[in-house]
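Throughout this chapter, every protein is written as a compact record of paired, labelled lines. An example of such a record is reproduced below:
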Amino acid sequence: MLIDHPAQNGAATLSETAARRLRQDIIGGGFPPATRLRLRDLSARYGLGATPLREALARLAAEGFVMLEGQKGFSVPPVTRAHLLDITRSRQVVEPEALRLAMEHGRAAWEDGIVASLSLLRHEIGRRDPASEEWVDAYEARHHRFHRALIAACPLPSLLRFCDDLYLQKTRYRRLMETAHQDWARMLAVHEALAEAVLARSDEAPGLLTSHIGVTAELVLALLGEAPPEG
């Protein structure tokens, strides 16, 4: 039986804390695109040592939230059309498949999770204040919870983690381009229709999810002055 050394546990906890806080700040726009991530600056910002921060940066680089450029060190990825389309199309491949598996394996607890997350999303939209950063954080958390709930019954943990990473990378684009200003009635109706189709185990549900994922890309590309993706 292996026993972890307490010091190793502590180091791992600090590294996880650093990764979580860095990821949140990158997604939320606390670090603008292409910002250099210097250990000295990060240590002062988070009150953490170089070792857990270095480990956190390496982890986030593997997840796609940070770039490592040889001798230049770590930086925040730029915002580009190619990267956004990569994220979008990847989500459109893997997330509907996770949804199909969830609909095959999901039981009452999974259904209850979808209903509860939709109710929380509806409530958050009802108290909306897009000018408030605090509200945007709360809305994004509810929106993420809903999308997680849809695929929660998928029996493949690696697929779920990949879906989650792609979702969070897409969130960075939404936050940077401030797409929280939108047609809320239509947006809520889309989520309600998606939840209804999923709970009914409709064959149309994966296609509805695919279309929904594509909407954000079109909004962000429009704000970037780009044409929407073809196909």
User: Anything to note?
Assistant: Residues 122 and 229 are 29 Å apart (CA to CA). The longest strand covers residues 67-68. The longest helix spans residues 81-105. The radius of gyration is 19 Å.
